[in-house]
Amino acid sequence: MKKIFIFLFSVFPFSLSAQAPNAAYVKALYLKYPTQKSDLCPACKLWVNPYYKSIADTQQHTPLITYYVYTKAHRLEQESADVPRTGIYAGWHPAFGQPDETPVYREANRIIAKPNSPEMIAKGHCQAWILLAWCVDGAILSDTYTFNAGMEFQGQNVGTEIATEELCRKLTGYKGDAVTDSVKIWCGTYGKLQTYTKNGLTVTVPSHYYKVIAYHDQQSGNQVFVTYWMPNDPTEKKNKLKERMITYPELVAKIGFDPQQIFN
């Protein structure tokens, strides 16, 4: 019976029309995608799943680079699937073999003592939940500590960060005409503002998020390449996104590696 379940799990991932996945399903899902060593940094590990790729510093617990190709088809599937951002579809988990960071986030916000404010620490996605929630597994795996999230101030989370997510949706035709069929997204974190510790686990608050968006503009016929360098600051707003644009060579100089040479 166990072998039959594993076979069915691998061939038929959960859909919303089926019974909602449970904790055992989520555990089995993560077991399918083990991490492996990366030489990007001494504590770096590579994590690859069918939805996005990531290299994270497992000592600092920060994603250094993630990569995802978001498509118009994904957007349409996400709108059709309408995965709820509640319960198991919105629960955070560590990759297999990694620690659970939930107590550290709670400790950080206990110290900050400003719930539901721009100063609170959010679980800041690199590759956004809404862009990955075109199927249940994508939604679940988007909420992965270390490999797709950093400690992000809520002001930044709903500021320039969410502005980049909305841009990607808009480019594929959300509430308007599509500019492109697909968007390549590189995203990561950089630097250290401070750290928080609980139960012997220390997690870094990065100083910046970066995002690179590349796509073929079907209207002009041009290849478009945009780079953002976003301070992890509670005062960030959506309307500051244009101010956060830098050149790609400037980004490479800041972070010390070329994202396109790692994932493409």
From TrEMBL:
Keywords: Endonuclease, Hydrolase, Nuclease, Signal. Residues 47-258 form the DNA/RNA non-specific endonuclease/pyrophosphatase/phosphodiesterase domain. GO terms for molecular function: endonuclease activity; hydrolase activity; metal ion binding; nucleic acid binding. Gene3D superfamilies: Extracellular Endonuclease, subunit A. The keyword Magnesium does not apply. InterPro entries: DNA/RNA_non-sp_Endonuclease_sf, Endo_G_ENPP1-like_dom, His-Me_finger_sf. It holds the Pfam family Endonuclease_NS. It comes from the Bacteria. The keyword Transit peptide does not apply. Residues 1-20 form the signal peptide. This is DNA/RNA non-specific endonuclease. It comes from Mucilaginibacter pineti.
